[in-house]
Amino acid sequence: MADVFDRVKAIIVDRLDVDEEKVTLEASFKDDLEADSLDVVELVMELEDEFDMEIADEEAEKINTVGDAVNYINSVK
Amino acid sequence: MLKGKNVLVTGASRGIGRTIAIEFAKQGANVAVNYAGSEAKAKEVVEELISYDVKAFPIQADVSDENSVKAMVKEVIGQFGSLDILVNNAGVTRDNLLMRMKEDEFDEVINTNLKGVFLCTKAVTRQMMKQRAGRIINVASIVGVSGNPGQANYVAAKAGVIGLTKTTAKELATRNILVNAVAPGFISTDMTDALTDEQKEAMLAMIPLERFGAPEDVAKVVRFLASDDASYITGQTIHIDGGMVM
């Protein structure tokens, strides 16, 4: 669990240029991390590459918080 | 200036697409030559491109089919390692008066000429976003601006392409992906050779420069839009029509 979260966090910090402390499981991409819709699309793309998986559009649309992303990845892995 | 750039041109086995592919090869760019049915012609184009000492290969795909488009883009990126420029050129005509136009004539033209641009653009966007660079050039048509009797399907598709160009340009600007369209007027190709002499005379009378365009006139503007010289232009439709529509 921690492993997935750390890897997701690293990508978010790099892509959105935010402080590590702000990236909590509860943090919303759009509200707390100042990501716009295109940033979220791009993050999902990066997560797909990082975890070598495909996230369907319907699933990607449900990802609003960092925790949503981590949970989804854990559920598939 | 485009040396080493990797380009995908759809509908490149003949007409304007073929000339665009050759123009890129002359500039030192590598070109994937998409075709739908004319494999032999696509191979001839590839032979010609290779003579300019660039990489080129033919690739079959139906641009109106998402799986076909995805497979094509994957193959092109696999072979070239990146994709810098997409030229959405593939197009068909099924002319008929509105009153006589069949539903499938309308659908076929919309599917290839408009949906095809959407699918190809969507398929290359992931790669271009990662690169933080890309150029997409859509071949629209002047009739998409002016309208034209007998071409309700074609005109609707081309007007749609112009709108799609603007929206794509706005969505992708922050990722340094520039999206523009060209709107050719009367260009001498297979598609226009089918017109009667009387139709051609009538067309000439509407063109201030009093001559038809050549495919090269279009290819050179496409080359400009793909170059560094056009780095502050996005969302535009450049008319290449001898002044026909202003």
TrEMBL record, chain A:
Residues 2-77 form the Carrier domain. InterPro entries: ACP (IPR003231), ACP-like_sf (IPR036736), PP-bd_ACP (IPR009081). Pfam families: PP-binding. The modification O-(pantetheine 4'-phosphoryl)serine is found at residue 37. 4'-phosphopantetheine is transferred from CoA to a specific serine of apo-ACP by acpS. 4'-phosphopantetheine is transferred from CoA to a specific serine of apo-ACP by AcpS. This modification is essential for activity because fatty acids are bound in thioester linkage to the sulfhydryl of the prosthetic group. It is found in: Cytoplasm. Keywords: Cytoplasm, Fatty acid biosynthesis, Fatty acid metabolism, Lipid biosynthesis, Lipid metabolism, Phosphopantetheine, Phosphoprotein. Pathway: Lipid metabolism; fatty acid biosynthesis. Belongs to the acyl carrier protein (ACP) family. Carrier of the growing fatty acid chain in fatty acid biosynthesis. This is Acyl carrier protein. It comes from Oceanobacillus luteolus.
UniProtKB/TrEMBL annotation, chain B:
Keywords: Fatty acid biosynthesis, Fatty acid metabolism, Lipid biosynthesis, Lipid metabolism, NADP, Oxidoreductase. Residues 5-185 form the Ketoreductase domain. Pathway: Lipid metabolism; fatty acid biosynthesis. It is an enzyme of class 1 (oxidoreductase). Its EC number is 1.1.1.100. InterPro entries: 3oxo_ACP_reduc (IPR011284), KR_dom (IPR057326), NAD(P)-bd_dom_sf (IPR036291), Sc_DH/Rdtase_CS (IPR020904), SDR (IPR050259), SDR_fam (IPR002347). Belongs to the short-chain dehydrogenases/reductases (SDR) family. NCBIfam families: 3oxo_ACP_reduc, PRK05653.1-1, PRK05653.1-3, PRK05653.1-4, PRK07231.1, PRK12826.1-2. Homotetramer. This is 3-oxoacyl-[acyl-carrier-protein] reductase. It comes from Oceanobacillus luteolus. The lineage of its organism: Bacteria, Bacillati, Bacillota, Bacilli, Bacillales.
